[in-house]
Amino acid sequence: MVRVGRHYWKFVLCSVFVVSVFMVLRNVSRCTWVDTGPQMVPNEKYIVGEDQKVYRYHREMPLIFIGGVPRSGTTLMRAMLDAHPEVRCGQETRVIPRLLQIRSHWLKSQKESLRLEEAGLHKDVLDSAIAAFCLEIIAKHGDPAPRLCNKDPLTLKSASYLSEIFPASKFILMVRDGRATVHSIISRKVTITGFDLKSYRQCLTKWNNAIQTMHNQCKDVGSSRCMMVYYEQLVLHPKESMHKILEFLDVPWNDSVLHHEEQINKPGGVSLSKVERSSDQVIKPVNLEALSKWVDQIPEDVVKDMPVIAPMLAVLGYDPLANPPNYGSPDSFVQDNTRRIKANPRLWEHKAKTLLKREQSNSELLGDDFATEGPAPAA
Predict the structure, then answer these.
(1) Does the pLDDT value for residue 51 go beyond 90?
(2) TM segments (predicted)?
(3) Annotated catalytic residue: which of 50, 60, 86, 92?
(4) FRET pair for 338, CA 20 to 30 Å: which of 25, 27, 124, 299?
């Protein structure tokens, strides 16, 4: 038997080491590696609810955005969705549409756009920042829920952009007869930038421009992600309408959406604002009271010129010369609700005062100050 010396084994081990190093270096040289420098890595975001469940939120989650011209039924829509145990919309944030308006002004100003580019605030940086801001507000201004929803009426003027920064989001555009919307704005003294509350003609023109913008945005987003919901049909046929809406949103059916008034200010229910004018209306069940209040309230010269003043009425399927209009026949469920409300008006007045707890001294705070245009960028 031949004895193998110590030097032999040293030679073998050194050879294996050299070959191994050679193979590693050869493979590394084949790899393509680009040094992009240090990178910021976002933390995973989540909220722990009172039920001790972890609710994760991120840009790819299926957010729901509800919008439309103010006084078009957006509050009713969000209240009905808020009654669903899996959905949380909450009160208007007010800051999200203002941020979107500021961004719009940046884009319109060539000087401001150049300044942002020079500062390294490229599109992807701004998009990421705006999305993060909106997401934090939506996620944390109310209770956690599997499906989060935002209702700031004028956000749908930026539906295309929101659909880009939130790729799984869906949109509900509330549509209402512009004559009813404008009458409600004027009679309830809802302040909207650019709307002259002393002129039906001017307000109808402003309504026409606003709904045209949102209608175009909804079409740009596409029917698979943006659904137009007619306020009149939601009120006349709530069960049929809500079935379609929940199916569109991929939310399972729950009868609670037909009884939102039972969930007012309850945990996990419908949170109402003391300073939104529409709050006193949604404490009632779905009813017919507001459908035709505008009839015989608009000046005759405006009624005569309606097709010219508000051409979007016809585009949306309304007869601009019908006065009163025929929106259709209500379900028996809605008729019963309306009869109950008319039979005991004091009961509902008391409920409004109790649930909203409005103090007389705070009456001047009531209002919906909507800015249709944001502040111009500084020169």
Answers:
(1) no
(2) 7-25
(3) 92
(4) 299
Q: Are 282 and 289 in contact (CB under 8 A)?
A: no
Name the band, by pLDDT with cuts 50, 70 and 90, for residue 356: confident
Put simply, whether the predicted model's pTM sits higher than 0.85 gets the answer: no
Is residue 170 within 8 A of residue 225, CB to CB? The reply is: yes
Q: Decide if 92 is catalytic.
A: yes
Residue 270 is classified by DSSP as B
What is the residue-averaged pLDDT of the chain?
85
Residues contacting 258, CB < 8 A, separation 6+: 80, 238, 239, 242, 286, 333
Q: pLDDT tens digit string along 227-271?
A: 999 999 999 999 999 999 999 999 999 999 999 999 988 888 888
Neighbours of 156 (CB within 10 A): 29
CATH classification number, 46-365, choose in 3.30.70.330, 2.60.40.420, 3.40.50.300, 2.60.40.150:
3.40.50.300
The helix (H) or strand (E) run that includes residue 23 is helix 6-30
Helix (H) or strand (E) holding 184: helix 178-187
Burial class (CB in 10 A: 0-12, 13-18, 19+), 192: buried
pLDDT of residue 65 exceeding 60, the answer is yes
Every domain of the chain and the residues it spans: 46-365
Nearest to 65 by CA among 217, 184, 196: 217
Output the six-digit token pair for 337: 């609700």
Tokens, residue 120: 């390294």
